[in-house]
Automatic annotation (TrEMBL):
Ribosomal protein as UniProt keyword: no
Keyword annotations of the record: Protease inhibitor, Thiol protease inhibitor
Matching InterPro entries: Chagasin-like_sf, IrrE_HExxH, Prot_inh_I42_chagasin, Rad_response_metalloprotease
PANTHER family: ANTITOXIN HIGA1 (PTHR43236), BLL7220 PROTEIN (PTHR43236:SF1)
Entry-linked SUPFAM superfamilies: ICP-like
Species assigned in the record: Halobacillus salinus
Residue ranges constituting the IrrE N-terminal-like domain according to the UniProt record: 39-139
Residue intervals of the Proteinase inhibitor I42 chagasin domain: 223-306
Protein name, per record: ImmA/IrrE family metallo-endopeptidase
Record lineage: Bacteria, Bacillati, Bacillota, Bacilli, Bacillales
Amino acid sequence: MGISKSEAVKIATIEASRILSKHKLTFEEPIDIFSIIENKKILLNFQKLDSLAGAFLPETPDRKPGVLINKELPLTRQRYTAAHELCHFIRNDPPSIDTSSDLFNVDSYKREDNEQIANEFASSILMPRKLINNVLKRIAINPDQLNSNSVYELSLRMDTSYQATVNRLASLKFITRSKYKELLSVSPSEIKKFHGNKGLQTSWNNIWNISERENNTTVYPTIGDEIRVHLEENPSTGYKWTNIPESKNISNYWNSENADLSQFGVTGVRRIVIKILNEEDKINLDLSHRRPWMPKSESLGYFHLNIITQVKRYGISIEQLTA
């Protein structure tokens, strides 16, 4: 008889904590799993693998240990696969070949002990409790009030899939069994459709809803994603958000339902929509809430957001080839 799920979680949590403790992490941004792997001198190779998600190849007398990742997977799945294969390395497991069905289809979940532990390890290292708590605080979500939309936003900021995030929240007892079933009954595509997904390049792309609470933070979208910044604004007083960059992929408008602009002090929302079109997109929003003719020093408030586009990798990095 194999180990229980609770035993797998315990072993995986210990292993993940040991790895994370060796790195200087803020637990404010996604865990850089690829760098963790490469720092262990493991060859990380992104290739077309058809139905395979990834594989682990142990070290031999004439070969370094290696991890293969399917280059065609979405980035969140590449990260999960990489973390899964890293577990095989640190536990000295035999060679492992994992299909997408093995890793991402719950009904086809492998029951071997080492595969259970590797899956739990992937969740533990990518979504440590401290990171979850920090992100929930950052987006002002009470853990007792999690819903499909807030879990979706949480997953974006940890760079994990919606399903993996729901599973992790259940494992850490953030949510009840009934809430777990409720969350899994809603798909990310339904959430994106609710927000209006016509501007997305593919069904895998995401919509990031950013409020003023995320001032002075960094987000890491992928090509094809859409960033939507929502900032409170009172245009009838003359105060507006200024310094919005002029670009073909940035639009903005003021919105307030049933607003009467003849009334002084009407509050609405300035919406800034940023489409991530290519890998060179690195945008710094540095906005000030002021009357346009006033100096920046007299602003009512400021908002800064750093947007760094993530780019999928192919092959082996030059740094590893020359190491």
